[in-house]
Amino acid sequence: MADNKSFAQQFIATPGKPFKLSKCDPRDASAFRDKDEAKADIEQDALKIDALQNRLYAEDKHALLVVLQGIDCSGKDGTVRAVFNTCGPIGVTNTSFKGPTPLELAHDYLWRVHQAVPAKGFIGVFNRSHYEDVLVVKVKKLASPEAIEKRYDEINHFEKMLSNNGTRILKFMLNISKDEQAERLRDRVATPEKRWKFNPADLEDRALWDDYMAAYETAITRCSTDHAPWHVIPADRNWVRNAAIARIVRETLEEMNPQFPEPKGWDPANVKIT
Ligand code: ADP
């Protein structure tokens, strides 16, 4: 297994270099010795994330924003459950970005995103994000090419501003193969308890697979930065996806190293509770 320092590094799209999805195998499991070990790691990491989240909340100085992007069936919801369910609802927010409402469309595309950014002390998870505005919007031509072209720099500036103001940003692209998506879609249709997740419109997006992958490559190439790196996570196996993301989140929180604050204006030694 890779050492601590390089664990996240193996998934990061190098800032400033053209990124190619063809170099990333969605079935790659080489970051872990085996499935049992990885599953045990996820549970340990989830407990540590909970303890660190408690310190982040108490310290109240920084926030962590976790962006989850991926095509339908890539496992965004499953990741949230595996990595953040242990935390409970006190210090974690989860925002799912759907097609914009009329009110959202009446504003700039970052308006709704900025409002959902986690406050100091919180971990905020984005299930889809402002990247939809250079992904689905590009593929389905919902804005002009000129407007979309400007968005990469705008997004980089926006994320830099968040980072300058105390928000750490981790971005994860859940990389599944087209074959695996087909398997998962078939399973959704065949399993009564999963049918609610199936939307016939998902098949329209599937037909545009190559366009989506090209849009991801451009977004990752142009928006993987030192302050907000893109991690491309092999996601055909759920346990690899969950274990990799849990570990990167845990290590990032450890690096942020939030501290319980000292009492302000009172001395514990002088407090008498009768
Ligand atoms: P999910 O697939 O995330 O579980 P849905 O099935 O409701 O949830 O899909 C949300 C849909 O909203 C996706 O098809 C996504 O492309 C779309 N969407 C998100 N953001 C935007 C946006 N800015 N413009 C257009 N469509 C968007």
In short:
The protein is an alpha/beta fold. The chain has helices at residues 4-7, 35-59, 76-84, 102-105, 111-116, 136-139, 145-164, 178-190, 201-207, 209-223, 238-256, and strands at 63-69, 92-96, 123-127, 167-175, 230-234.
Descriptive overview:
With about 270 residues, the chain is α/β, with parallel strands linked by helices. The chain is built from 11 helices and 5 strands; from the N terminus they run ααβαβααβααβαααβα. It has helices at about 5, 35-60, 75-85, 100-105, 110-115, 135-140, 145-165, 180-190, 200-205, 210-225, 240-255; strands at about 65-70, 90-95, 125, 165-175, 230-235. A 5-stranded parallel beta sheet has the order 2-3-1-4-5, sandwiched between helices. The radius of gyration is 20 Å and the shape is globular. The structure holds adenosine-5'-diphosphate (ADP). Adenosine-5'-diphosphate binds next to helix 6.
Mean of the pLDDT scores?
Answer: 96
| Straight-line distance between termini | 54 Å
Low-confidence stretches: none
Beta-strand segment tally = 5
Report the portion of residues in β strands.
5-15%
Note the overall shape.
Answer: globular
Tell me the number of helical segments per DSSP (H or I, 4 or more residues long): 11
Helix proportion: 40-55%
List all distinct small molecules, including ions and cofactors, that are bound in this structure.
adenosine-5'-diphosphate
Topology, please?
Elements: H1 4-7, H2 35-59, E1 63-69, H3 76-84, E2 92-96, H4 102-105, H5 111-116, E3 123-127, H6 136-139, H7 145-164, E4 167-175, H8 178-190, H9 201-207, H10 209-223, E5 230-234, H11 238-256
Parallel strand pairs: 1-3, 1-4, 2-3, 4-5
Helix pairs in contact: 2-11, 3-11
Bound molecules: adenosine-5'-diphosphate.
Adenosine-5'-diphosphate binds at residues 72, 96-100, 127-128, 132-133, 136-137, 142, 199.
